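Long-time lurker, first post. I've been practising inverse folding by hand and with some scripts of my own, and I keep getting stuck on stretches where the structure tokens seem ambiguous. Below is the full token string for one chain I'm working on. Before anyone asks, I'm not after the true native sequence, just a reasonable design that respects the backbone. If someone could post their per-position residues I'd love to compare against what I wrote down in my notebook.
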């Protein structure tokens, strides 16, 4: 077999099946004309040859990566110019993948992994886009007035190892943008909720499934900064096979949510998948299963759980995107900041989060998201007693939260952050009011229920705390802040003198997220009160590893309430910490 080193270009027409279905003769004529006017001349000019046609595209071979890139840039630009006047839904756009390496050569074809990988890269490129392998990138970088975005390692079907890919982002002059892999075009937090599938013949269930889709579309639109495709558009896809990447491109959204509802006996199962519309990859999946009592009574609970989980998952997905950007914008930085907050209340994570929020405010001093983010950082530092200068941080948190509310009084998260500040500054009744305002704006903000529960603890009504946390868990059973809610219950149980229950919840909190030093310290106190001194000392040591400056004196100085019942419980807490070896100060 004859082998040689080549650069392989794989290209196809985006949405070809739809274009042919709409008007096959006109599509064939336009494609033929573009091949003759743009594709062939570019390939020939740069020393390449068309190996074969694939109906909706072609495979070409070049002597090297530089020649292949020159040809691809030239014909993509020429095709764009020739189709500028076409209606958007009729416009022909090519997707291109480029790879280099040794191929097996036959008279009318080439074979090998190099070819297969080029074809896979073409499949993840967006219309008018070019995706290349890292080996190709090494050959072409610095040789063209273009910029590339590192897409990280991509896994492809029937390709044994992950492939590191790069996407052409834009020409360096900035005069013309190419929307490669969609990372620069679709709005942040843009999503289409496809009609959920009904795996059953029950007509009542069919209405229920449509109701879940409609309600979820409405609730997701309440997420600050979200862009959700309207219900009327989404329902045009009901009952149809959907190409997620094509739909994402046509509707200009980054994410697609699809789901199904299945009834088996007396149980109802809801499956959901969040898909990156640009790559077609699943980035989150969840299953909810509950006994069937009344379908429509269940609808609100299911929608609330989905909306709450998706809010956090979309932020994390946006943060992962932002990590790969050379010049992140304000929202990119805000998402990265909240992703750092989600990792846990340690000085390290909160310091990283503050850095992202401060960079965002340098770009836009009136960014509400960044103001809320930095207020959340300062409120968390105060709440978790991570500094001796607690009052300064809580004051800054209040100032920034109030400033954010003056710019946007309808952001539920801001009211929740302010509720935490009020709780920590001996104003728990104000904290409850703030969280009730948050819930009036966003009924799915489960964390607001938890903060109300903590306010009851500061008011000396710890017996009421657990009920509010249970409501939070009902709305969001796997919440990103679940460790914090378990901490709240553990603190309340300590105040009630129920040390075994306190230890149970604080252990769960630590298992959920070990990056919470205060949870370790409270666990050490609960274990001490149970006589488990060795375990208590281990818990205290774990807390000090995360927060070496913590002392009982610092905790005493942070007193968030003057309620006598609360103060009495705190004295028992301090005594337990001393036995566990937490420094007095």
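-- Answer (accepted) --
I ran through it position by position. Result:
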């Amino acid at each position: 077999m004859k082998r040689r080193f080549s650069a392989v270009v794989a290209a196809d027409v985006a949405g070809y099946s739809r274009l042919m279905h709409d008007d096959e003769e006109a599509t064939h004529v336009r494609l033929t004309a573009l091949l003759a006017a743009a594709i062939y001349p570019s390939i020939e000019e740069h020393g390449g040859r068309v190996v074969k046609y694939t109906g909706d595209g072609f495979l070409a071979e070049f002597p090297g990566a530089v020649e292949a890139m020159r040809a691809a840039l030239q014909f993509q630009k020429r095709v764009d110019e020739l189709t500028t006047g076409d209606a958007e839904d009729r416009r022909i756009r090519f997707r291109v993948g480029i790879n280099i390496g040794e191929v097996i050569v036959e008279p009318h074809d080439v074979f090998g992994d190099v070819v297969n990988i080029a074809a896979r890269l073409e499949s993840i490129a967006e219309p008018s886009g070019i995706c290349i392998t890292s080996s190709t990138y090494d050959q072409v970088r610095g040789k063209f007035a273009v910029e590339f975005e590192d897409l990280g390692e991509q896994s492809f079907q029937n390709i044994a190892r992950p492939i590191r890919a790069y996407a052409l982002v834009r020409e360096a002059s900035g005069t013309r943008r190419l929307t490669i892999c969609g990372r620069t075009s679709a709005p942040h937090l843009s999503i289409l909720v496809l009609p959920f599938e009904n795996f059953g013949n029950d007509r009542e269930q069919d209405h229920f499934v449509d109701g879940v889709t409609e309600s979820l579309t409405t609730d997701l639109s309440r997420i600050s900064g979200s862009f959700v495709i309207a219900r009327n558009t989404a329902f045009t896809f009901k009952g149809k096979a959907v190409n997620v990447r094509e739909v994402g491109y046509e509707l200009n959204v980054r994410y697609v949510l699809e789901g199904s509802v299945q009834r088996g006996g007396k149980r109802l199962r809801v499956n959901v998948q969040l898909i990156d519309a640009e790559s077609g990859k699943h980035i989150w999946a969840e299953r909810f299963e509950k006994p069937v009592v009344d379908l429509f009574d269940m609808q609100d609970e299911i929608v609330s759980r989905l909306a709450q989980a998706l809010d956090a998952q979309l932020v994390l997905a946006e943060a992962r995107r932002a990590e790969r950007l050379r010049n992140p914008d304000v929202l990119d930085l805000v998402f990265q900041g909240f992703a750092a907050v989600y990792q846990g209340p340690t000085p390290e994570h909160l310091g990283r989060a503050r850095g992202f929020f401060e960079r965002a405010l340098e770009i836009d001093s009136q960014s509400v998201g960044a103001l809320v983010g930095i207020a959340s950082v300062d409120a968390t530092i105060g709440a978790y007693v991570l500094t001796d200068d607690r009052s300064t941080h809580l004051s800054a948190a209040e100032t920034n939260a109030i400033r954010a509310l003056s710019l946007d009084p309808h952001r539920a998260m801001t009211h929740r952050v302010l509720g935490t500040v009020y709780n920590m500054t001996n104003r728990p009744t104000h904290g409850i009011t703030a969280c009730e305002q948050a819930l009036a704006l966003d009924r799915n903000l489960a964390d607001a229920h938890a903060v109300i529960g903590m306010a009851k603890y500061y008011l000396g009504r710890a017996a009421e705390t657990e009920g509010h946390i249970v409501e939070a868990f009902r709305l969001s059973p796997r919440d990103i802040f679940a460790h914090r809610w378990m901490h709240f219950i553990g603190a309340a149980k300590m105040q009630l003198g129920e040390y075994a229950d306190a230890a149970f919840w604080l252990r769960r909190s630590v298992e959920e997220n070990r990056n919470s030093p205060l949870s370790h310290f409270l666990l050490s106190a609960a274990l001490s009160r149970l006589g488990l001194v060795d375990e208590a000392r281990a818990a205290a040591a774990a807390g000090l590893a995360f927060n070496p400056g913590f002392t009982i004196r610092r905790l005493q100085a942070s007193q968030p309430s003057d309620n006598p019942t609360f103060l009495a419980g705190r004295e028992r807490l301090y005594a337990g910490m001393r036995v566990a070896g937490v420094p007095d100060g």
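A couple of notes from the structure itself: Residues 171-184 have pLDDT under 50 and may be disordered. The first strand starts at residue 2 and ends at 13. Happy to go over any region you disagree with.
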